[in-house]
Amino acid sequence: MSIFKAYDIRGIYGKSLDETLARSIGRAFVTFLKCKKVVVGRDMRPHSEPLFQALADGLMQQGADVIDLGMVSTPMTYFANGTLGADASIMLTASHNPGEWNGFKLCREQAIPISGATGIKDIEQIVLKGAFAPAPAKRGVLTRHDIVAAYVKRIRSYLELPRPLHIAIDYANGMGITEGEVLRGVRNLTIDPLFDVLDGTFPNHEANPLHEETWEALRHKVQAGKYDLAVYFDGDADRCGIMDEKGQVVTSDIITALVAEVILKKQPGAAIYYDLRSSWAVKEVIEENGGRPFMSRVGHAFIKQQMRETDATFAGELSGHYYFKDNFYTESSALAAIFVCNLVSQTGKPLSELVKPIKRYFASGEINSEVHDTKAVLQKLRATYAGQGKVIELDGFSVEFPDWWFNVRSSNTEPLIRLNLEAKTQAQMERKRDEILALIRG
Fold first, then answer.
1. Rounded distance, CA 66 to CA 68, Å?
2. Please, what's the b/e burial string for 397-435 (b: 16 or more CB within 10 A of its CB; e: otherwise)?
3. What is the DSSP-derived secondary structure letter of residue 185?
4. Tens-place pLDDT, residues 321-378
5. In the predicted model, what is the mean pLDDT of residues 246-269?
6. pLDDT grade for 247, boundaries at 50, 70 and 90
7. Dihedral sign for Cα atoms in the order 393, 395, 399, 403
8. What distance in Å separates the CA atoms of residue 1 and residue 181, rounded to the nearest whole number?
9. If you placed Cys at 429, which of 47, 172, 238, 423 could pair as Cys (CB 3.0 to 4.6 Å)?
10. Of 233-247, 306-320, 407-421, where does mean pLDDT reach its minimum?
């Protein structure tokens, strides 16, 4: 299976990804983009350093200058790309994947992402064919730049905490330790950390907030202490999860609605995106607060493009990605956490109380089913439901009814159908969930 994916390049170090390939990717990147100045950051995995050296060598061999950011979060590379006037950026990381994985997240200027459809597959072909542009006589140069202080200053400027907060943060031994610098040492915010030593082998748990079992240590800490809320960063800190003061995970669509509330108080009428798996309540909250809600398909490249097209201020994705115009339409997990902290501090209400009015419906959560023929299953669902409700084909197949809705999507990489469903009552959600799963799996 190719390591050149829909959204990034990702493989197992020493097997499908090594220094030779990293050097070729660097050469192919410059050949494809014709870029002259490339910002490069990396995570804390033990092999990120040798892969960086090889990648940088390939970039410079093709005449591009490299700005080495050192170990940073992925949001910091986006910030550096935009603020330093670079032609492109690369982040070496495998995000939430286990420690043996590594990879590259690629961007054009202004942190515009490069996806499979907009360049990754072209770069793969250049690598496979060795079709690099002739190396210029003048090799590129390497310089070092510390972007952390500028990013911290920019994102920290949004903090508004009139009342002291006590929070817990699970850094998961990842780049959240650097991203979280935004939150450390500020007035009215006390932090109790978990796993705050950089370690790319992830000795405590996988750095993936989407896996329920990885919340266990943070939940134990919250329930054993007295906290206003808790934050959990994924491996490269472009995602974060939020937990309330009772140790309950708040789903990312509900956090999207909360952040939208905060933003719309200062920017009435702002355009805000939510992914199509989100609760109906998200659109309703945006409208109730004077915003303009837009539904987006799943995937960061699509969301960022849609945000640019409509000059949207903010977008939230069910996977825990939060996108901000003020970070070049890319993620800033620290800024998402700041907006939630601001709301709790300013209202004086527990987070569990703030989310109650938004929990209006009952969701199935994302349910994956392995199938032999995803197209046939989707066709069966269309035949059954298309004439009964409002059909939306933005991403996969969705149908909205007066009191429930569902979306089914096929995986890009596996023979899986993903179901998300929501209804006005728990009983109806369970009944409709089982009805559709029977069709998918039957």
1. 6
2. bbbeeeebbbbbbbeeeeeebbbbbbbeeeebbeebbee
3. T
4. 999 999 999 999 999 999 999 999 999 999 999 999 999 999 999 999 999 999 999 9
5. 97
6. very high
7. negative
8. 37
9. 423
10. 407-421
Alpha helices (H) in 190-296, listed in sequence order:
216-224, 252-266, 280-288
**For residue 413, is pLDDT > 80?**
no
> What pLDDT does 411 receive?
84
**Of 73, 95, 332, 364, catalytic:** 95
pLDDT at 308 over 80: yes
pLDDT at 45 (0 to 100): 98
Closest CA to 178 of 52, 244, 80: 80
Residue 425 has pLDDT above 80, yes or no: yes
Q: How high is the pLDDT of residue 306? A: 97
Q: Distance between CA atoms of 296 and 351, rounded to whole angstroms?
A: 26
Binned at pLDDT 50, 70 and 90, residue 412 comes out as confident
- Do β-strands 314-316 and 330-331 pair in parallel, antiparallel, or remain unpaired? unpaired
Q: What is the pLDDT of residue 1?
A: 85
User: Which residue bears the tokens 């959600």?
Assistant: 429
Cα-based angle 112, 114, 117 (whole degrees, multiple of 5)? 130
How are beta strands 292-296 and 416-423 bridged, if at all?
Answer: unpaired
What torsion do the CA atoms of 172, 194, 214, 50 make, to the nearest 10 degrees? 10
Q: Are 397 and 293 in contact (CB under 8 A)?
A: no
CA distance 346 to 349: 8
How does strand 88-92 pair with strand 404-410?
A: unpaired
Candidates 113, 162, 158; CA nearest to 336 is 158
CA distance 372 to 236: 34
Question: Which are the contacts of 46, defined by CB distance < 8 A and separation ≥ 6?
Answer: 99, 200, 201
Tell me if residue 398 is catalytic.
no
**Beta-bridge partner residues of 89:** 39, 107
* Per-residue pLDDT, 414: 79
- In order of their start, the domains of the chain are 9-147 (3.40.120.10), 163-249 (3.40.120.10), 252-358 (3.40.120.10), 362-441 (3.30.310.50)
Pairing mode of beta strands 416-423, 362-363: antiparallel
- pLDDT(47) > 80: yes
